[in-house]
Amino acid sequence: MAKEQINIAAVQAAVADTDGADWEAGENHLTALTAKQRRIRLGVPVPDDSHRAALERRAAGVRAAGPQTLDAGPAADAGAAASFDLRNVSGQSYVSGIRDQGSCGSCVSFGSVAVMEGTARYARRMPALAVDLSEAHLFYGHGGTVGVTCLTGWLPLPALTFCTTKGITYETEFPYTPGNSGGGSAPSGWESHRARATGTADLTNKIAAIKQHLVDVGPVTGCFIVYTDFYSYSAGVYKHVTGAEEGGHCVAIVGYDDAKRAWIIKNSWGTGWGMGGFGYIGYGECLIDTWSNIGVTGVRLRTWTAAKKVLGGYGSGYDRSGWVYVQDNGWLHVGGTTSTAHVAMFADLLTAKGKGAFVNAYEDEGLITQAYAY
């Protein structure tokens, strides 16, 4: 096994000897693994030769483009910021925590779920929104119905299409284990506790559009070719400098920095890789922005809010016009099967607000259908 460990000194030397390379390599839990153990963590099928050649040409164009050419398009016309980071928007982070996919090629599920969670929080501007979704349900459940396994890998578009047509449940309902070693499955009635995307947005090879989606909507997937040196990345802007091609991988893009000419990525290899699980990868590097960049247009939830306070209310003379602002969840429309039921629920929620009482409300895609005050 020692012979298969990555030679960090050799990677560091290659970085130092490569023009335009400015990143740091270091030991981590991946660099000590065998090549086979590392590769199982890659789960995006590499495109065939003809498709690959076209993608490489696009990527070369991105790397060679000057700032004006690179940023041409709607985002540039709209005056997109020179940098943006969903981990720090006016001091607030809308990015969910770093996870570890372990020894399974399930990276597409983790990248796609990160897109769902980040979009759900950012669309509402609610950084503390409780939305911990099940990578296991997406990968082993939905993916399993079309033959997806730890060895086959997957692609973001079909994964996020399942998130749109079916939705996915929460982590508490179907916890993730590598290879589904726990033998789990989504429980009966999971549809009452789920997140569903309103649609997908294919932003592949549209640099300005990717940036604008990040600023306006939320994270985007990024698929790229992994070379051996990538496992040892610890800081800086990654650029391939040495090592063999290992396979395809998927991450979530959560920001960008034009000064660095780089995307900010959220990986799924635990906090021991990169900068606490995050990293920078250069524009056009290893097909990161020319292969498969998929976002979602929005996320709707079915879930209980748990103990929260009502912080605001709005109503008008129109029928069923009551809205309440729920702590960490934002504005939700008050439901009710009849106008009388709507008024009664709205009144109860406003009473809870006046008393500073906690409520537990059931949200059905933006509509409160049940609520308990205590």
Automatic annotation (TrEMBL):
SMART domains: Pept_C1. InterPro entries: Papain-like_cys_pep_sf, Pept_his_AS, Peptidase_C1A, Peptidase_C1A_C. SUPFAM superfamilies: Cysteine proteinases. PROSITE patterns: THIOL_PROTEASE_HIS (PS00639). It comes from the Bacteria. Gene3D superfamilies: Cysteine proteinases (3.90.70.10). GO terms for biological process: proteolysis. Coiled coil: none annotated. One of its GO terms (molecular function) is cysteine-type peptidase activity. Residues 80-296 form the Peptidase C1A papain C-terminal domain. Pfam families: Peptidase_C1 (PF00112). Belongs to the peptidase C1 family. This is Peptidase C1A papain C-terminal domain-containing protein. It comes from Luteipulveratus mongoliensis.
